[in-house]
Amino acid sequence: MAPTLNPSAMATGLSGHSDHPETNVLRLRPLGIDTYQEPVIYMSADCPICRSEGWEALTRLQVALGDRVIVATLNVVTGDLLAPDEASLSDAAWRLLGAAPGDDVVVSSMPPLESLSAVRAKVYGHALSAPALTAIVRDVAAGRYAAIELAAFVTACAGDRLDEAETIALTRAMIDVGDRLDWPRAPVVDKHSVGGLPGNRTTMLVVPIVASCGLLMPKTSSRAITSPAGTADAMETVAPVDLSLDAMRRVVEQEGGCIVWGGAVRLSPADDAIIRVERPLDLDSEGQLVASVLSKKAAAGSTHVVIDIPVGPTAKVRSAETARRLGDRLVRVGAAVGLVVDIMPGDGTQPIGRGIGPALEARDVLAVLRNDAEAPADLRARALVLAGRVLELGGRVPEGEGLALARRHLERGGAWRKFVAICEAQGGLREPPRAAYTREIVATRSGRVDAIDNRRLARAAKLAGAPRSPAAGLVLHAPTGRHVSIGQPVFTLHAESPGELAYAALYVEANPDIVAIGADEAQP
C-alpha cells in the first residue's frame, strides 16, 4: 500500500550546483544563535570579502556548501567574536545547509529577485497572473524572500484582495512547489479546522476513528501559529511527529493513518514560510487561508476533505455569512485542484474540551479515546460528528450512517487501539507531561457564565507558556450556561515556571471578563 513520491520539478533553493567565485570562502564557527526559522549569516566587520563586495547588514546573500545553497540575511559582527576569515550561521541556517563547525562555505550576492515586481504591482491593486504567482511561490519556497518582502506579499493579499482566479492559481503554485504524495488506493480522506477556537483537538480523535474503520487518512498537521497549541504540538506530547516522508509512508502503510507535523515533510513549503510572517502580523487573508489549507491537502495526496469552520463572535470566523462565503470558496477552489470538499460549520462561541495548551489538550483526547466517564462531552460529540461525515464523504457508509459507525468504533475500543498503534508506529506512546505550577482563577460573583472570550482566554494560556512549554496552558471548569458561586474555580492556569504563572495571572486580573458571569437576580 506504499505511496509514491512525486518530487516537484521546481527548484527548492536548498540544493544545486553553485558557480560562486572560490575566493569568497569563509570558515564556519558556531555561535549558537536562535533566530527561530530565519536563516542568518554572521560576518566580521573586518571581513575582507564583506568590505570588498560592499555588503552591509541585512544584505541577502547566497551561501553554498558543496551542492547545497541557501539564502541568508547578513548580520555584521563587531568585536572579536569572529575572525575576518570566519562566518557563523543562525541555528536555522546550520540545519538547512547541513553544515558542521569548520566547514568552508562560499558566499556571493543574491541575483535580482524578479518576482518582487509582481508583488509591488499587487500592492498597487493589480491582479496577479498565474505565472506571476508561480514565480513568487517558487522564490518564497527557495528562501529568496526576506521577511520584509514576505510581509509585503502577505499584506498585499490580506483581507479579500485575492479573487477566486488568483486563489486557484496560488493554490496550484503552492502544490507544485515542494513534494507531493500519491497513494495506491482511493479515496484518501482528510479533515481540517480553520482554527480560532481554543481546544478543539478533534483531529487526534477523528484520525484513529476513521483509520479503524478502514479508510486511508495520512494526516499532516500544523504547529501553533497564533494559538496556544496546534495539533502537531498536542500530538507531540504523546508521540513523535517530526517524521520524514519515508517514515510517514511506513506508518500509513502499516496503520492506515498518521498524525505528523507537516513542516517536517516539505508538503507546500511556501506556505510554511508565509505562515511565519502571518503570525507576527496577525493578518487574515481569505484567499491565502484557502490556498494554505487546500495546497497541503492536495500535496499529501488527499482526495476528499471535511473542513470544520467554528463560528462565533471571538472565533476566527465570526458570522454565519462569513462562514458561508469561505465555505463556498473552499469548495470551488478545491474542485479546481481535484479535491472533493465538504464544509461543516460549528459552534465557535466557546472552547471545545477543557484543556488549552499541548499537554492539556492531549489529556482531553486520551480521556475521550479511553471512554473515561469524566471525558469532555463536547469534544467527544464534535469529533464523532466530524468523523462520521468523513466516513460518509469517503464512501465507507451511506449518508446518515457515519455517526453511528464512528460511535461504535469509539465506544468499543477500536479507535483507542488504532491510536495506540499509530503512536507506536510513529515512535512510541507516552503520557503527556504535567505542569509544576498551577493557580485557580475563581469567580468573584455568583451567577451564570454568559460568554467566554476565546481570544483572551487563549492569550492567558500563551502567557502561561503554551505552546513553547508543552505542559503549560489552562483548564476551563465553567463553560457557558453553567452556574458558579463566589470563590468557585472558573479555570486553572498551568505553567512550568513561577514567573510565567505570575505573568499569566496578572493578565487575567487585568481582564476579569474573559469569562463573563451574569449576576444572580438576588445580587445588587
Task: Explain the overall architecture.
- The protein is globular and about 75 Å long.
- The model is unreliable at 1-20 (pLDDT under 50).
- The termini are far apart.
- The strands form six sheets. It has a six-stranded mixed barrel with strand order 2-6-3-5-4-7.
- It contains 18 helices and 20 strands.
- The chain is 39% helix and 19% strand.
- Going by helix content, strand content and strand pairing, the class is alpha/beta
Alpha carbon gyration radius? 24 Å
Low-confidence stretches: 1-20
Binned strand content:
15-25%
**Envelope shape:** globular
Head-to-tail CA distance between termini: 68 Å
Helix proportion range: 25-40%
Let me know the average pLDDT: 91
Report strand order across the widest sheet.
2-6-3-5-4-7
Number of helices: 18
**Major sheet size, sense and barrel closure:** 6 strands, mixed, barrel
| DSSP E strands, number | 20
List keywords for this structure.
524 residues; single chain; disordered N terminus; 4-stranded antiparallel sheet; 6-stranded mixed β-barrel; 20 strands; 39% helix; alpha/beta; 18 helices; globular
